[in-house]
């Protein structure tokens, strides 16, 4: 079997690269030695995609891009690089050309949509006292509190930025649906997954934060994708 591809983890809104902490530990236990987690500015899709591309360009050999939440839009936009071998979506947006995460959410609003609001500087926040029930209802209260207080708010326009050329149209794809997601409607996740024709789709009884609440099955899917690409 060929070497596993490098794994690059891409976070979404309301958190940073550390949201992948449990997945990082789990993948390292399984022998993944080339792991990177992008820290995106969350200022625009173009900025975030370029930040991700810069990390991917530093890696020799094939790369498996893994995106959570809005990070799915980022890997959709940035996954056109020639060394990107595949894409894994974890409760993530997978927009088509000329489609944005905001547009997808407005078509079928998620349960916690009303708990998101902009501040006077144009940053979108989840209300701290609603964060646990909105983003990660299957995590312990203390862990949710830390996520709420340390949330990384995106600039509002990033939510409406359209994908240009979706990489999933030309790269192998895997998808994880969170059946209890309150930040992206689960039916939207199922629809996005279905139209990409993934090599595998799994559905977890999980919140939006499945990468933190169910890191083992999430890592199972990433590992399966990596092994599939390694041949």
TrEMBL record:
Q: Which residues cross the membrane?
A: none
Asked whether the UniProt record includes Chloroplast among its keywords, one would answer no
* Domain AB hydrolase-1: from-to ranges: 7-220
Instruction: Give the record's keywords alphabetically.
Output: Hydrolase
Specify the signal sequence span. Answer: none
The upper taxonomy is: Bacteria, Bacillati, Actinomycetota, Actinomycetes, Kitasatosporales
Q: Which PANTHER family match?
A: AB HYDROLASE-1 DOMAIN-CONTAINING PROTEIN-RELATED, ESTERASE_LIPASE_THIOESTERASE DOMAIN-CONTAINING PROTEIN
GO terms (molecular function) for this protein are: hydrolase activity
Instruction: Write down what this protein is called.
Output: Alpha/beta hydrolase
InterPro entries in alphabetical order: AB_hydrolase_1 (IPR000073), AB_hydrolase_fold (IPR029058), Sec-Metab_Biosynth_Hydrolase (IPR052897)
């Amino acid at each position: 079997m060929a070497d596993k591809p490098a794994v690059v983890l891409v976070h979404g809104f309301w958190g940073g690269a550390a949201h992948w902490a449990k997945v990082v530990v789990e993948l390292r236990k399984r022998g993944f030695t080339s792991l990177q987690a992008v820290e995106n500015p969350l200022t625009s899709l173009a900025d975030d995609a370029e930040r991700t591309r810069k990390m991917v360009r530093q890696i020799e050999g094939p790369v498996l891009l893994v995106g959570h939440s809005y990070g799915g839009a980022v890997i959709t936009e940035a996954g056109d690089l020639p060394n990107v071998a595949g894409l894994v979506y974890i409760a993530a947006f997978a927009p088509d050309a000329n489609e944005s995460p905001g547009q997808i959410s407005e078509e079928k609003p998620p349960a916690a949509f009303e708990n998101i609001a902009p501040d006077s500087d144009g940053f979108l926040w989840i209300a701290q006292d609603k964060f646990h029930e909105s983003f990660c209802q299957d995590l312990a209260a203390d862990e949710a509190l830390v996520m709420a207080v340390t949330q990384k708010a995106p600039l509002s326009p990033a939510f409406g930025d359209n994908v240009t050329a979706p990489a999933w149209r030309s790269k192998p794809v895997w998808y994880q649906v969170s059946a209890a997601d309150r930040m992206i409607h689960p039916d939207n996740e199922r629809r996005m997954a279905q139209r990409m024709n993934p090599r595998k789709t799994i559905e977890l009884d999980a919140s939006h934060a499945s990468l933190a609440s169910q890191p083992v099955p999430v890592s199972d899917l990433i590992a399966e994708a990596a092994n599939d690409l390694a041949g």
